[in-house]
Amino acid sequence: APDAPETPEIVEYNSTFIKLKWEKPKKDGGNPISGYNVEMREKGSNNWVPCNSFPTKGTEYTATGLREGQTYEFRVAAVNGAGPGTPSKPSQAQKAEVPMYAADAPDQPKVEKITKDSVTLSWKKPANDGGTRITGYVIEKKPADGFV
């Protein structure tokens, strides 16, 4: 039987799918690898569940039908004429959720009003909110000479 493939990596995800990729095993056991069995488990469980009914041919797989908010781990076993080999180490745990990214920067601040104690600024919100509601802004200042 073949050696274990490299640990699968998460390459893309959302609330209903997680896409994996992995490197083939270093040794095929003397027979060509015909495919890969992919298994998943909910984080904290010891119960590995098959993802595919038949070995997948390539070194990528998309697990679908996941429960939003649940965290999953994946492992892969290469299959050849002798059967399935040792499974890989589990992937990093990944929650099935819509990914969020940092928002783009807002427009350049505009000075609206200056007093001896304060300054009032305004700006346009970023075009891209990163996939979630913007909850605040960080304002920084520095002396007029530019030195801190």
TrEMBL record:
It holds the Pfam family fn3. PROSITE patterns: FN3. One of its GO terms (biological process) is sarcomere organization. Gene3D superfamilies: Immunoglobulins (2.60.40.10). Keywords: Repeat. InterPro entries: FN3_dom, FN3_sf, Ig-like_fold, Striated_Muscle_Regulatory. One of its GO terms (cellular component) is M band. SUPFAM superfamilies: Fibronectin type III (SSF49265). The keyword Repeat applies. The keyword Repeat applies. Residues 4-99, 105-148 form the Fibronectin type-III domain. This is Fibronectin type-III domain-containing protein.
